[in-house]
Design a protein that fits this description.
62% helix; two-stranded antiparallel ribbon
Amino acid sequence: MLRNLWNSDTRSQTIRIFTIAIGGIVLLQLVLALWWSRTPDSFEPVKNATEMAAERSQPQVTGYTSTATLITVANTMLNKPGGYLSNDIMPPSVWMDNVPNWEYGVLVQIRDYTRALRNDISRSQSQSLEDPDLALAEPLFNFDSESWMFPPSEREYRKAIKLLESYMERLSRVEQQDAQFYARADNLAAWLAIVEKRLGSLSQRLSASVGQVRINTDLAGEPDASQSTPLPDERITKTPWSEIDDVFYETKGTAWALLHLLKATEHDFADILQKKNALISLRQIVRELESTQDPLWSPVILNGSGFGLVANHSLVMASYISRANAAIIDLRTLLSDG
């Protein structure tokens, strides 16, 4: 009888300890998930570049601020609380999708700007040689964002950052001319053309959160134009409810990265922007993108109808992105015609 009592007490104690341990693990995972879900704060690109130049004893030549900003944006994506989460396979990050989508939005802007650096901004003309560091960095940033081993994504991105640092170091050598940053109107317009398409796509995906019947404008009304696969004149577009928060956070990450790159652009392209009377247009774009970074007070992304009782966070975000995109179109016009 004593043995049975002892066994009963031992069993109860074991269950209690096991329950407390499981509860502690779940609580720890929840705390980590909440901490890692915080997106990084913004930074001032000019101040950041000045500090980097002072630490490395490098002069701030044309293009230094933009390159330093690109490096800092990439480092922030990798070194924020929780690190880089897009390729994690362990809890709690494997259950989190908002931050990985934010990371992807940032990564796309890093890829686009690095491509613009390689193909346009660092080259004087189409027949000139491309920069060797940028030629290696650009494909590294395009490595699979979800690879967790052989090799992990972070390793490839850190290699790319090292190459950007090498380019920035060579850029700051005023006694040598083997690295250049050409702050010209055509170079800036080439990058903005890519940004325009990115924001236009995100705006459409955000607006589709409530579902819309859209007229097919793929051929732009040209009677002699054709496409590989015919489509109906009208079609219904709607973002699946399970992807609404994904698109929202991807847009938030895109806007966060673009916000810093445009502020750096204002510094490095200041002369050409003033000459083209385009400085105010760029600042208006920055203002719209800053609004996308306002705190979200709802625990979930709401998807109410356009004029319903419940808010629709996607439509609010789409309004900021659409206005920023319209301002970018105006800015490109000023750069070419101003």
